[in-house]
Amino acid sequence: MYDLKKQKKKMTKQKKPKRSPEKNESQEAVTEPESLDKASEPVFPPTFSVSEIKNKQRRHIMFMKFKQEKRKAKMALKKKIKKQREALGDKAPPKPVPKTIENQRIYDETTVDPEDEEVAFDEGTDEFSAYFNRLTNPKVLITTSDRPRGRTVRFCEQLGTIIPNAHVYYRRGLALKKIIPQCIARDFSYLMVINEDRKVPNGLVLCHLPDGPTAHFKVSNVRLRKELKRRGKDPTDHSPEVILNNFTTRLGHSLGRMFAALFPHDPQFVGRQVATFHNQRDFIFFRFHRYIFRNEKKVGIQELGPRFTLKLRSLQKGTFDSKFGEYEWVHKRHEMDSSRRKFHL
After folding, report:
1. How far apart are the first and last CA of the chain?
2. What pTM was computed for the model?
3. Its Gene Ontology biological processes (predicted)?
């Protein structure tokens, strides 16, 4: 045991052998060209992010410069492509169609074919057939929820100036089931109810009289006339033209007929006013414009307001009945919104 301990001490005391100077010189000779190569290479700055700047004003300035440079590069690329296309002339390749959610839409089996006999039969026998056969004229009652605030009241008044033969009345605590028989007795063809939440309009119930249907919409992005930039003068009493865009399915087709039946049959083109219901990704955008022909090629458009967006929540058969009503369609968010490319209108 004693001998083993002595041997271990001797091993630890032994020093590592020094390297020969010949080996060091050879190593230096090998490493010198590598260091020269590294020095000749360009030194790039490290990756830098604008979000790392702690000063808020400096960070904003750098971000705006970055956006401006990006915009300039994009415009330069567009000009370059345009020059190449002009140089090629007729031999230029066709422009690529950009991929959007709309043109990548999943095909719906209920898409309406205008020449379909079944669709024509349904149009001749549905609740709006009397209007489209010119047997009735639209008459609309616009009311609100209980105790409406100023913004909702102004919104109803401005809707009354857009829809001809529309009458605005305050609800005064009456139930809708009591209002509907009174509207039918006074020959109203529509009942429109504007609901609000936290002093902001957030819902619209549109009931066609006397046999329905009743549609319930969510209302968002309401902009009154005073809130619009570069708006025109107040609308006149002329009946506007109506434009309905992208109502392609059976459900969308019935909604389009419901919107069309709000306005008189023959628009007065002298007023040059247009009411547009544009469906995009199941959101219905409403705009109200006045147009003017500047020359043979240019048309000037001026928005009159108000503007708002509708999202269909349910479509009910017959008049409004929250307890015993039969629903044709109900929006179930978790089931129906599973795919971004699936639309229902």
Report:
1. 95
2. 0.76
3. maturation of 5.8S rRNA; maturation of LSU-rRNA
